[in-house]
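hiii, so i know i said id send this last week but things got crazy w the move. better late than never?? heres the sequnce for the chain we talked about at the cafe, plus the structure i predicted for it. fair warning i was half asleep when i ran it
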Amino acid sequence: MISFPHPNPEDPTELETYLDAFRCQRRRAAAGEEEDDDQGKCGGAVVSTDALDFEADFRCGRCGHRTPRAVLEKVEDQIGESLEEADKNDREAMELLLEVASPLLHSSNYLILQVK
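okay and structure toks below
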């Protein structure tokens, strides 16, 4: 009999898939830290502080910066609406959407995967 590990429902990374993760928007230069992206932002993976609480804030795994869930829901809603309205057969439109979404969403976020 093959045994598989049971997923931890409290795992905010969703078994390290990061399907609901964002990218940290905290400015690193202001804190005297080395910048990790071309826009001077942390860019770390931002995941829920409590995967079982739909109202929980999110926190960056790299710098610890917290972001209210409501802020990230607005970002997710705007990108989701843009994806719904986009012509999926228009390569340029999809590339533009990916260019806009990539600095905000983790590279494995479900919306990024839909665009790709």
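btw The chain has three helices and four strands. thought thatd interest u
miss u guys!!
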